[in-house]
Amino acid sequence: MGTSGARIAARPAGGQRAAGETAALLASYKLVCEGEGGAMTHRILVADDDALVRAILSGVLEPEGYDLSEAVAGAEVLAHVNLSPPDLIVLDLELPGGDGFSVLKALKEEESTRFIPIVVITGLEDRESRIRSLELGADDFLLKPVDPLELRARVRSLLRFKRMNDQLLNAYRQIGDLGAIAEGLFLSREPLDRLGEAVVAALLREGGADSLRPSRLWAGSEQAGTLAGTAFRLVEGRLESTPARIPLACLERGLEPAGREGGLFWLGGRLPSDLEPLFGPPGTLAGLAGLSHGDHWVLAAGYSQEVNIHDAQVLRTLALERGFLERLSEQVRETEASFVYMMTALARAAELNDQDTGNHILRVNAASVLLAGRLGCGGEFLKWIGHSAQMHDVGKLSLPPAVLRKPGALTQEEWSWVRRHPRYGAVILGDSPRLGMAREIALCHHENWDGTGYPDGLSGEAIPLSARIVKVVDVYDALRSARPYKPPLGHAEALRILAAGDARVRPGHFDPEVLACFLGHEGEILDLHRAYADVPLTPSGDADSPADSPKVH
């Protein structure tokens, strides 16, 4: 057998092997491989149409712990790789249904498979075949007969290189994910309310044996001899969090065998039982990486492959990014809170000279949110109409107080002033994107669905939805409220006027769908009116009940 052991033979010229030759080759190979093995979990695809070669390759590689699959034709190789990409391919250049060169070229040109190591084995001894294989991207080239010990060494080396390459690509992907989160924060008009959770979700994997990401993460701090914090995992794409704690002594005991460098540590193999309670529901988890800084700890577990210092370094980078983005997000939230406060202050200022409006802006805000939600609006629209509806009459700041408080009918000149307040409101709010909805409400909430409103005579869907919603809410609340020129009406009478009209209000003024929705949820509107009521709530003798309210269909 010689010092290099048995060799995987090239196919004989006739293409067939005698039974005795096959048995002899397998027996001689068995002597080389007996007693040697490892603990690898990589998946290898063996592509060769010679059954004996496939059998010998299996005998070489399976004792190493590799998970082997086979293909006998070029199309089968490509189909297998597309369905379940292996960690390495052993490829014969002489395949039926597409030669090995075309398979090699296809795999190395495809972005998703170009980094899979490919070991070419062939009986073609010409120099041109070797050069062509390497030019097409083959990572190694072995001539038949192949020395099994050499093959195993080449495979181990290529898999180590792939592992390092995968770690690098994974780190880039994770940092890229965080970059996308940061970009979303900077480009969006809104801060990410759950930024920290988004960063954690970007780090974790859910199933899939190929990922280098952990399946569980825990973050917390030391508190009186206990490590207390929160465990995270992904379940059906949704981040789940669970409070979890262990005695500090258990942490120290569990990390005794871990590799360490600075505040980083990593541990291969099954997670020590002392640490399992930190990661939520019990289960077999492999691999641990983590970091500590002062009293603060971040631990990740459930890696699908070998863990080393690089995983801990990636974790540290992500933890630092998360901390930075969370602090930035908190500052943005504080700025937004101040912005919303100033919006409310401006709305209050607009009502200052209109002494009988009381909690009008609070009711308009709350009822607009309710109505928008019942109409199926959501997300940012629902959030911002709750801040913007109160700005509908900010243009009143331009009107003389005497006009707002006048108990009698307005003159033509005074009425012309009043009709200008939507435009003044739009001017006051300006062109800030943050105030875009408030501006359209201030400008358009006196427009009518039938085109008879002001200031521009808009009609139908040319009127922004936000303004159509506030229109109904504002008219209802105005009917319910006392003014210098009129007493307040009860709930039922206000609904009757909205549905049937009176001398000033006609049903055609309102978006039919919005009006129908408002009347269909009048009980909830009444509850809101009571919750933010002025005193007195209703005029004497007027029942404030939704029971006999009219409906519009």
Indicate the CATH class of the largest domain. Answer: Mainly Alpha
Mind telling me the C-alpha Rg?
37 Å
Strand-residue proportion? 5-15%
- Lateral arrangement of strands in the main beta sheet: 8-7-6-12-11-10-9
Number of helices: 18
Structural class: alpha/beta
Most strands sheet: 7 strands, antiparallel
In the residues, how many domains can be counted? 3
Name the helix and strand elements from N-terminus to C-terminus, one letter apiece.
Answer: HEHEHEHEHEHHEEEHEEEEHHHHHHHHHH
At the fourth CATH level, what is the homologous superfamily of the largest domain?
Hypothetical protein af1432
The percent range for helix content is: 40-55%
**Overall 3D shape:** elongated
* CATH architecture annotation name of the largest domain: Orthogonal Bundle
Cα-to-Cα separation, first versus last residue: 94 Å
Mean pLDDT across all amino acids? 80
Summarize the structure.
This protein has helices spanning 19-33, 51-61, 74-83, 100-109, 127-136, 148-187, 195-203, 248-254, 309-351, 360-374, 379-388, 401-405, 412-429, 436-444, 465-480, 491-500, 512-520, 522-531, and strands at 43-47, 67-71, 88-92, 118-122, 140-143, 216-223, 226-235, 238-247, 259-261, 264-270, 286-293, 296-301. With 553 residues, the protein is of the alpha/beta class.
Could you outline the blueprint of secondary structure elements for this entry?
Layout: H1 19-33, E1 43-47, H2 51-61, E2 67-71, H3 74-83, E3 88-92, H4 100-109, E4 118-122, H5 127-136, E5 140-143, H6 148-187, H7 195-203, E6 216-223, E7 226-235, E8 238-247, H8 248-254, E9 259-261, E10 264-270, E11 286-293, E12 296-301, H9 309-351, H10 360-374, H11 379-388, H12 401-405, H13 412-429, H14 436-444, H15 465-480, H16 491-500, H17 512-520, H18 522-531
Parallel strand pairs: 1-2, 1-3, 3-4, 4-5
Antiparallel strand pairs: 6-7, 6-12, 7-8, 9-10, 10-11, 11-12
